[in-house]
Amino acid sequence: MRALGRREHSAEQLRRKLESRGYDESTAAEAVGELSERGWQSDSRFAEMLIRSRVGQGYGRMYIEGDLRVAGVPDAEASAALEAADCDWTQAALDLHARKFGAAPKTMDERNKQYRYLAGRGFTSDQIRKAMKGVAPDED
Questions:
Q1: In the predicted model, what is the mean pLDDT of the chain?
Q2: Where in the chain is the domain with CATH 1.10.10.10?
Q3: In degrees to the nearest 10, what's the CA dihedral of 41, 47, 52, 55?
Q4: Is 89-139 in CATH node 3.20.20.70?
Q5: How far, in Å, CA of 127 to CA of 62, rounded?
Q6: What are the tens digits of pLDDT across the range 26-61?
Q7: Which of 43, 62, 90, 119 has its CA 20 to 30 A from that of 5?
Q8: Selection from 117, 115, 140 nearest residue 128 by Cα
Q9: In what residue span(s) does the RecX third three-helical domain sit (predicted)?
Q10: CA distance linking residue 130 with residue 109, whole number of Å
Q11: Model-level pTM?
Q12: Whole-angstrom Cα distance, residue 113 to residue 2?
């Protein structure tokens, strides 16, 4: 309860946290199951919170999908939460590129640096290419 009072946790994170504090596997799973039944723990609520947070930090869909996978959120719930987020990933890449670099790359080294940065943040090649050209999603 104390862990959930601070922030949302996925069921897997909560189970691992309980096990690290000395609870055996079955007790931890039972406790997490009971918290889920009562509505105090929800993987979908956790996924929504994580997506909102990561989008605000400038991360792309692929990075966020990885975070959700590491957190143990089931693929179906992760996909549903990402679709519900209704984020324009190309616009997010464009905004991040403008904030970080300000202008299109002038040299091949700058281009590679900017590309690697945006790729590391979880954006696709197409999104990165458009962001580096300064092409807004509605101009496609």
A1: 91
A2: 89-139
A3: 150
A4: no
A5: 12
A6: 998 999 999 889 888 889 999 999 999 999 999 999
A7: 62
A8: 115
A9: 91-132
A10: 18
A11: 0.85
A12: 43
